[in-house]
Every structure is written in C-alpha cells, then in structure tokens.
Amino acid sequence: MGIELQDGWTIYIWLISGAAILIGVVFGIRWAANNEQFDEDIKYLVFDKNDKDKMDPEEFTKSQQVNKRQEARRREVLAQREAEAREQN
C-alpha cells in the first residue's frame, strides 16, 4: 500500500539535511557579522566599577574603556532606530 523506495535513498536525505544545515550556518554567521557579534572585548561587559579589586589594573582600565565604547555604540543604534521610526510615521 505504501510507497516503496529503492535501496540507497537515505543518502539523499542526509545530503539535503547537510546542505540545509550549511545554509543555516552561513546565514547565522552573516547575521552575527552584521550585528557586531564578533567582538573579542565583549567579555569585559560583565564587569563594572565594583569589580576593580578583583581585576588587574590593566584589565580594569580595558573593561571601563570597552563599557564606554559599548554605551556610545548603544546610544548610536538607539538614535538610528528612533530616526528610522520617525521617518516611517
């Protein structure tokens, strides 16, 4: 009653699944690159001024610089989104 498939058809399912995964990975990497996700300094964003005694002076200075840069970038992005929202209305 069912459809009979010949031997060896499962390789095609594996090939299609593998291609779909690779396409998904490419789109994921592209999204990450466009959304500034490959920043090595992101590890410093978990620290704040209360962590000064737990860090080396150089690391603390670096973390403060990264936080300032990220806050400035955040303000830029929010201002850009707000401007785009105003244009649409």
Please tell me about this protein's structure.
This protein has one domain. Helices cover 64% and strands 0% of the residues. The protein contains 2 helices and no strands. It starts with 9 loop residues before the first helix and ends with a helix.
Which class do the helix and strand fractions yield? mainly alpha
Shape descriptor reads elongated
Sheet having the most strands: none
Can you count the beta strands?
A: 0
Q: What is the domain tally?
A: 1
On the 0 to 100 scale, the average pLDDT is: 87
Provide the helix percentage: 55-70%
Specify the number of helices: 2
**Can you write the helix and strand succession as a string?**
HH
Distance between the termini: 59 Å
Using brief descriptors, characterize the structure shown.
89 residues; 0% strand
